Amino acid sequence: MRRNMKMFWDEMQRPADQELNTLKKMIMMPGKLKQHLLLRFLGFSILVLVWIYINGGLVPFFLKRSILPEESGSGTRVLQYFTHADNDGVKIRWAHGVNTKQALERALESAEINMVEGDVMLKGQGTNARTLIPMMAHLPATAGEMNLDEWVDRVLQTPRKGFKLEFQTMDSVEVSLQKLHDMKNKIKVPVWLHADVQQGPHGDPPKVEAIRFIRTIQRLFPDCTISLGWTSGFHTDLSQSGYTWEMVFDMYYLINKYSLERKVVFSVRSAFISNSVPQLKWLIDNTGGSILVWHSPENIPNVGDLMYISYKFPPPQTFFDLNHEEMDAFLQEHRHNSRPKLDPLVLQRETVVFRPEAWLKMGFHIQIHSILPSTEALVLTNKVVYVVSKTKYQASDKIKLMGRIQFLNPKKLEAEKGVTGLSIYVRPTEYIDYERIVGIRCFLGIDGQIEVGPSHMDNVPDFRRSQNITPGSMNCYRFTVQNTDKEIVFTVNVQHECNTLRSSQPDQQIHAMLTVPLPQGIPDGEFPFIIKLEDSKRTAVFDELTIKYIS
Q1: Which residues make up the CATH 3.20.20.190 domain(s) of the chain?
Q2: What keywords does the record list, in alphabetical order (predicted)?
Q3: Residue 416: phi, psi to the nearest 5?
């Protein structure tokens, strides 16, 4: 026995002895030792890089899926909970309209599904037999197979499944949230609570009141993600349809009023994406929220629209509930390489969009909502604020300020002739006081009046000139200003559509042009451009604003 053990030990020692002898020889030859150590280091480094590439980090992928946040609960962010998504919303998979026992079991058994969505209404909804029992069903149904308690209990029995409840009526909200409140201690998964609270494209008035919905959540079940949407409908021609600026402004003020920033998801229908990206991106930029893109069975998602969303919205703030295998596979493959598949009009618009980093806020911009910039648009709501270009420019016929403005009237106020509109100041020498900007003023009135003339330039002869054009029903105009060494050239075009992607095409003709010679005494040098809303009776939306060099 001892002899066998000795032979075994000798065999084990032999490779180690050989390695030790090799190292001793290398010590005697420093060049060989360095080469040996370098090769081993390189080999180890390559193995580590391959490991990280395969697993997306040092943690093995098969363990990563099972790692939970230290503290999980109903308010846990989906991307924090489902760590396999690598902070990318496209990797979260949804099961939509899961209201029956069969559909629920199918969703819970699927390893691919992360979030399970069901619709909530009261039993007997819309009938004389209505009760206070929340059921899982979608209007116009009046009953369902499962009540809310059974549905939630079954979801919670399955590991690693979050859930979303979509409320069909206001009277189902409070009783449902009271039930969630009572079981909150055992809910350790992400919970989204959704309702369509505002009227959207082709949609009916919402059945859930926005203020009551939010207040009830904040009172009974605040530890959740709030999902808000717009009602929508189907139409044979959706080419002109989308989420308008008025729709997103109403949502913005709602979010701001109840301090829901960064805790809200906006649910948007894929059929309206093409004409809504500037509006939705502006909303995300100014609330810190996220969006979830969904589609209805009668609308197959458009590849170009999905790429448009992928190109413009950051992965951690963008979720897709497509319920369409081919489109979902396409999105998974091209999500991070979307530019080659964009509509050419998207790239055309990229050349003229507002760049917040190129402009300074001026005036009393501490007033809330007065200046609302985004990578897609600039919104001005008050005459006490304005923006100034960071770069100053020499008078030249090679430089052109270009923009497109839409005047909105949320307060339903009458316009004042010659006042309600936009001022563009050229060669300003004083502009600290918003009421007394000294320079050349190019004015564009909502009524179609355009004018170029001096502004508080006391020692210069009056060179004012004006013209009138017929305004369009959209109250939308595209303008250019050229500040040459001898004259100001101010052009204005009436836009008969302003919200569609196709409207970003360049104009083919000029509707109005003022060419105004400059008298002696006009200051020369380098000056910024200034953009200012002249009164507070309108909201000004600039979805194009750029300064271009003309070759």
Answers
A1: 64-342
A2: Membrane, Transmembrane, Transmembrane helix
A3: -105, 120
DSSP secondary-structure letter at 147?
B
The per-residue b/e assignment along 178-194, b for 16 or more CB within 10 angstroms, e otherwise, is ebbeeeeeebebbbbbb
Condensed to tens digits (0 to 9), the pLDDT of residues 39-92 reads: 676 777 677 665 555 554 555 544 444 444 445 789 999 999 999 999 999 999
The percent of residues above 90 in pLDDT, for the chain, comes to: 66
Instruction: Measure the CA–CA gap between 214 and 228, rounded to whole angstroms.
Output: 10
How far is Cα 446 from Cα 472, in angstroms, rounded to an integer?
9
- Phi and psi (nearest 5°) for 64? -60, -35
Which residue is listed with tokens 């090769």? 39
Q: What is the pLDDT of residues 485-527, one digit of tens each?
A: 999 999 999 999 898 999 999 888 889 999 999 999 898 999 9
In the CATH hierarchy, which fold is given to the domain comprising 64-342?
TIM Barrel (3.20.20)
Query: Quick one: tokens of 390?
Result: 């960071």
Low-confidence ranges of the chain (pLDDT < 50): 8-9, 20, 23, 56, 61-70
Structure tokens at 469: 């054009």
The tokens describing 467, both together, are 């013209």
Contacts of 445 (CB under 8 A, 6+ apart): 415, 417, 418, 419, 420, 421, 451
Q: Do 375 and 356 contact (CB within 8 A), yes or no?
A: yes
Query: Is the bond preceding residue 140 a cis peptide, omega within 30 degrees?
Result: yes
Pair of tokens at residue 327: 């489109």
Helix then strand then coil, % of the chain, to nearest 5: 30, 25, 40
CATH 2.60.120.200 in the chain is located at 356-549
pLDDT tens for 469-483 read 999 889 999 999 999
CA–CA distance from 542 to each of 7, 135, 339, 379, 468 (Å)? 86, 46, 24, 6, 22
Select from 3.40.50.1980, 3.30.70.3040, 2.60.120.200, 3.20.20.70 the CATH code of 356-549: 2.60.120.200
Output Rg (C-alpha) for the chain, integer angstroms.
31
Q: In this structure, what token pair is assigned to residue 154?
A: 């079954």
